[in-house]
TrEMBL record:
Residues 119-130 have a biased composition (Basic and acidic residues). This is Uncharacterized protein. The lineage of its organism: Bacteria, Bacillati, Actinomycetota, Actinomycetes, Kitasatosporales. Residues 116-140 are annotated as: Disordered. Residues 131-140 have a biased composition (Polar residues).
Length: 140
């Protein structure tokens, strides 16, 4: 068996693994649709929406984290689909990939790029000021 044949077999095995993982993600409790279903209403934190600043703050953080988890789940599924499509393209040869698959690949890649760029921008905005976390050197 030549190296090329072994490589193709390894790619097919890898593709099969990716397909299995993607299927498990989409049908399991980590799918974006199932994560999105698990929500808690604001009233659950203080009953009857009574004024309670701590409950308001907690709910805002809960909603933010929930939104990020749904987004993360979608992003993970997109990245796994990109891997699956990429392995398939490698297996059949780039010239043999149909136009619909190419469009799907580029559409998903664009979504992933937008999500990564947005996260990097958020990280830059929330980066702690390094100078404010240091102690002055002249304080013996």
């Amino acid at each position: 068996m030549g190296d090329l044949e072994r490589g193709a077999g390894a790619l097919q095995k890898f593709q099969s693994s990716i397909n299995g993982l993607l299927s498990d993600l989409e049908t399991g409790p980590g799918s974006s649709s199932k994560v999105a279903q698990h929500t808690v209403e604001r009233g659950a934190f203080s009953g009857g929406n009574l004024p309670f600043a701590e409950a308001d703050g907690f709910y805002k953080q809960y909603a933010r984290v929930h939104k990020e988890l749904v987004s993360l789940s979608k992003l993970l599924a997109d990245q796994m689909e990109l891997l699956r499509l990429g392995v398939r393209a490698t297996d059949v040869g780039l010239d043999n990939v149909d136009e619909d698959t190419r469009r799907r690949f580029h559409s998903i890649a664009s979504r992933v790029d937008v999500a990564v760029d947005a996260q990097q921008e958020r990280d830059k905005q929330h980066k702690p000021d390094e100078q404010s976390n240091t102690v002055a050197k002249d304080m013996g």
